[in-house]
């Protein structure tokens, strides 16, 4: 029998980390990934501030503030629990269901906040993981 949990978590981890890797790369290269940056940069210029340094500070601060969304780290932890001898599979699935459910609620709750829409990969990966975990729960014996 295919262990869907073992397939879902690594795939969701990779998909979930892509936005963060992209943001950090842009931050290090000095690229612009913040839609508000153009407006903020203009305001900084009018105020006589060094716009280049201002832009770097804003970009790096934005990238750093998104580290809390690295829920794939938790997914990797659940995967590790799955391999720990003596831990019931039901407990592992319970952890995964709980976290993925919380992620869906979190993204749904903040859907009105357009700034949160910058992380659609998190929603897609979370939803796919949740569906695969449901399949695993329906097709497994504990």
From TrEMBL:
Gene Ontology cellular component terms for the protein in this record = membrane
- Identify the domain of life: Eukaryota
Signal peptide range in chain numbering: 1-16
Transmembrane spans: 73-100, 121-138
The answer, when asked if Chaperone is one of the entry's keywords, is no
**Gene3D superfamilies, alphabetically?**
Membrane associated eicosanoid/glutathione metabolism-like domain
The cellular location(s) given in this protein's UniProt record come to: Membrane
Keywords from UniProt, A to Z, are: Membrane, Signal, Transmembrane, Transmembrane helix
Pfam families reported for this sequence: MAPEG
Does the record's keyword annotation contain Signal?
yes
Where does this protein chiefly localize? membrane
What InterPro entries would the database entry show?
A: MAPEG-like_dom_sf, Membr-assoc_MAPEG
Q: What is this protein called?
A: Glutathione transferase
From which organism does this entry originate?
Rhodosorus marinus
| Source species taxonomy | Eukaryota, Rhodophyta, Stylonematophyceae, Stylonematales, Stylonemataceae
